[in-house]
Amino acid sequence: MLRRFAFATALLLALPALAATTDDRLAKPPADAKVWTLTSSNGVSRHGQTSLWTDKDGTHWSRFSFNLRGFVTEMDEQNRFAKDGTLQSIAIRGHNPQGDVGETYEVKDGTYSYKTPVDHGEGKTAPDLAYVSFGGTFDSFLFLIDAMRRAPDHSVRLLPSGTGHIAPLTELDVTNAKGEKKHLTAYAITGFGLSPFPIWMEGDNFFGNSGVVSLLPEGWESVGAAMSKAQDDALAKLAPVQYAAIAKTPAGPVAFTNVKLYDSDARKFRDGMTVVVEKGLVTAVGPSAKTKAPANAQVIEGKGKTLIPGLWDNHQHYGDDSTGPLLLASGITSVRDPGNQQEELMARKKRIDDGQLLGQRIVPSLLIDGPGPFTAQVAEVVHNQDEAVAAVHKAKDKGYFGIKLYGSLDPAWVKPMADEAHKLGLHVHGHIPHGMRPLEAVHAGYDEITHINFVMMQAMPDDVVKNSNGMGRFVGTGKFAKDVDLHSPMMTAYLDELAQRHIAVDPTLVTFEDLYVPDQGTYPAADAPYVDTLPSQFARGFLSSAMAPQPDLSRETMRASFNKLKDLVVELNKRHIFVLAGTDGVGFELIRELQLYTEAGLSPEDALATATINPATVYGLADKTGSLKQGKLAELALIDGDPQKDITQLRQVELVMRDGKMMDAQALRASLGISGPPKR
Predict the structure, then answer these.
(1) Cβ(211)–Cβ(318) under 8 Å?
(2) What is the largest CA-CA distance in the chain?
(3) pLDDT tens across 272-312, in order?
């Protein structure tokens, strides 16, 4: 969940970046400041708070403090107003993992100017024009909410670009632990992302928002779950209309003729092939010269195009209802969700399975973690071994495929948890608990290691291993991975043992590329092909993703360490270890993940296997999916291009099939406000 700390949360908790204001110089909240807490969806784990107050001259101040599993942000924000109440200036100070968050916005003599860590601009002011701060607390966003609510059409033009709109969504009565009651109204805000973003008001006053991390008034954290369910239920009513408009059931057989076919079982591309689909199943596969389309078939000419099995994103913390169409437009028909809000995920999965929502097959894992400052925000938190084993049973009872163990667990609990999981037929994977090396986790029962940095953790210094549940797993890997000899006796024996034990690996290389490689204010390679087609405010957020260099950790060092992580994936593949391609992001980064594999030395055929037949095999679904073979499910994507020659052509999806439905990729994109296919 590193790459996408959900955009819904990022609207209120943005992540910008250069010499930052030190914490002791940031504003100190007075005793009567209003306080909102930042709490995990379980309503228990607290990650920080925001305080808001107004000084005697009418200046708004806010102070934001946040620690998300070791990613620390400390900032303040000052907002000044003209006599008529219009916003005249914003000043943001502080730091986050990307560096300095310094940002200014100023209105003077009918013109505006702004400067952020990633962009700057100026122009003429207008009554319906409102600036969206790149970072800061959530204080300036409250003025945007008010402006949209006051506008005749409830819309405002946004700076630097775009249009924001607000509309009522639902209402809810809530009661906190003290018995206090409030009547809340949810509003859906659009124009900032790919889907409506719910915020909650009490009358004319902002109350909070609920999600993976909820922003709620102090003392009201317990109502977040009810708010989340209410907003999801309200938004769910929009989905069937979208489903009916886009997902079409073919009247009869569909024949894809003269296509280049990716045969994932053989890891080969085959030219001049025909694939026939009927009633959601593949009924024929063979050379076009010998395989005739049924007389009543819809024939799709595939010359110059490639037909591939539907792709898997093996590390997709499934977002809201927009996630399904977005992934389908990239040819992704299945995901493994390695940890999410439990009730929301399983409810969304059921709606997809019942044909009410456009989406993927979801193979879910229950994320389990121990208590502490670095606890995962959606974790089932356990405090002792009995609770840990009970959580394993919960995973089985609730229909999860596996359990994902996390960094703050006591290493002593891993073996009893894994033993119980295997008795129950559950898959065991995850981060490596702090103080434990990956081979120890494998000996204790891991079936799979999540993230390539945890594979590399075997070679990290003791202090990095000890603190691997915090920033150590990123800073330590960034510092030391470049010097690891992957062919040393120790690493050779280690990697050979992973192969002998049939351990799978979910590398999420693209996550570490975003952390280590880009310069501030540039688009990461995974996102650059998409940004011109995305809603502008959404695309702007990708300009800040890289971890800030430190005195003892330069960008050059991070890049060298990233290259060694790429090399490690090659070593895994050489040993026939099942590599499972995943993004830990929005989802469309999957193609960049595969491109990174080919840059490192994998063939396009082997790279594509990591997102098709490999996961289907690991998850016990290879008899149904993962390849296009007679009798299997027709889960596929038609690509306008040749990924054998250039794997980035996988981005050029024309249509996708899943669950007996055929969907036009451009219609899927358009439903999310995406203007067209990504750049070639």
Answers:
(1) no
(2) 84
(3) 999 999 999 999 999 999 999 999 999 999 999 999 999 99
The residues near 574 (Cβ < 8 Å, ≥ 6 apart) are none
Q: State the CB neighbour count (10 A cutoff) for residue 375.
A: 23
Tokens encoding 507 = 């590398």
Q: Give the helix/strand (H/E) hosting 158.
A: strand 155-159
Written in H, E and C, the secondary structure of 625-649 is CCCCCCCCECCEEEECCCCCCCHHH
Query: Residue 301's closest CA among 550, 638, 661?
Result: 638
Q: Which two tokens stand for residue 230?
A: 């209410």
Which token pair is 460?
A: 């990290």
Name 354's Cβ contacts closer than 8 Å, sequence gap at least 6: none
Angle between helices 590-600 and 555-574 (to 10 degrees): 80
Structure tokens at 20: 């930052």
* C-alpha–C-alpha distance, residues 542 and 527, integer Å: 7
Helix, strand counts (H, E) of the chain: 20, 32
Pairing of strands 361-369, 402-405: parallel
CA distances to 91, 105, 597 from 78, in Å: 5, 10, 45
Q: How many CB atoms lie within 10 A of CB 108?
A: 10
> What tokens were used for 602?
């994998």
| Burial group, residue 1, by CB count within 10 angstroms (0-12, 13-18, 19+) | buried
425-484 pLDDT, tens digit each: 999 999 999 999 999 999 999 999 999 999 999 999 999 999 999 989 999 999 999 999
- Report yes or no: 679 and 592 within 8 Å, Cβ to Cβ: no
Bridge partners (DSSP) of residue 269 are 262
Task: Please give the Cα distance from 371 to 384 (Å, whole number).
Answer: 10
Q: Which of 442, 591, 596, 415 is nearest to 505 (CA)?
A: 442
Instruction: Report how far residue 667's alpha carbon sits from residue 674's, in angstroms, rounded to the nearest whole number.
Output: 9
Q: How far apart are CA 86 and CA 345, in angstroms?
A: 41
Residue 560 sits at φ, ψ, to 5 deg, of -65, -40
Distance of alpha carbon 343 from alpha carbon 341, whole angstroms: 6
- List own/partner pairs for 67-72 with CB under 8 A and 24 or more apart: 67/373, 68/5, 68/213, 68/377, 69/374, 69/375, 69/376, 69/377, 69/407, 69/469, 69/470, 70/373, 70/374, 70/469, 70/470, 70/471, 70/472, 70/474, 71/96, 71/97, 71/471, 72/96, 72/97
What band does 390 get if pLDDT is binned at 50, 70 and 90? very high
Sole residue written with tokens 């009565």 = 173
Say if residues 214 and 38 touch (Cβ distance below 8 Å). yes
